[in-house]
Amino acid sequence: MNKSHTWKLPERVAYDADVLKLFWEKKIELHAERLQSEDMRTHRSALDRLRGEWAQKLEDRHRMLQAPPRHPCRVPSFHTPDKMAT
């Protein structure tokens, strides 16, 4: 707006400013409410808990695979020395 228009209709400019201010305050309020509801929804979600459980399982599996074997693998024998002698 040019300066001459502002001086001719000062109440109109004030009205527009108040309307814009209320508009943006309402937008900010709605945005804050949506952020809060989204935050509450994600806190109630089991997704974070499940991610944590899977990360722990993968970490345990990785540790198990990296550790040396505790018992040497033995192939079960179908013939024992006693049975072969008879």
Q: What does this molecule look like?
A:
With 86 residues, the chain is mainly alpha-helical. It is built from four helices and no strands. It has a domain at 9-68. Helix content is 77%, strand content 0%. The longest helix has 35 residues, at 10-44. It is rod-shaped and about 115 Å long. It starts with a helix and ends with a helix. The model has no long low-confidence stretch (mean pLDDT 80).
Estimate the helix proportion, in percent: over 70%
Distance between the termini: 113 Å
Strand-residue fraction?
Answer: under 5%
Order of helices and strands: HHHH
Q: What's the story with the biggest beta sheet? A: none
Number of strands: 0
Shape: rod-shaped
Count of discrete alpha- or pi-helical segments spanning 4 or more residues: 4
Q: Output mean pLDDT.
A: 80
Rg, Cα atoms, Å: 37 Å
The residue ranges in which pLDDT falls below 50 over 5 or more consecutive positions are none
Class from helix and strand fractions: mainly alpha
What secondary-structure arrangement, pairings included, does this model have?
Blueprint: H1 3-8, H2 10-44, H3 47-66, H4 81-85
Task: Give me a quick take on this structure.
This is Family with sequence similarity 240 member C. By secondary structure, the protein is an all-alpha fold. It is built from 4 helices and no strands.
Quick tags:
86 residues; mainly alpha; 4 helices; rod-shaped; FAM240; Family with sequence similarity 240 member C
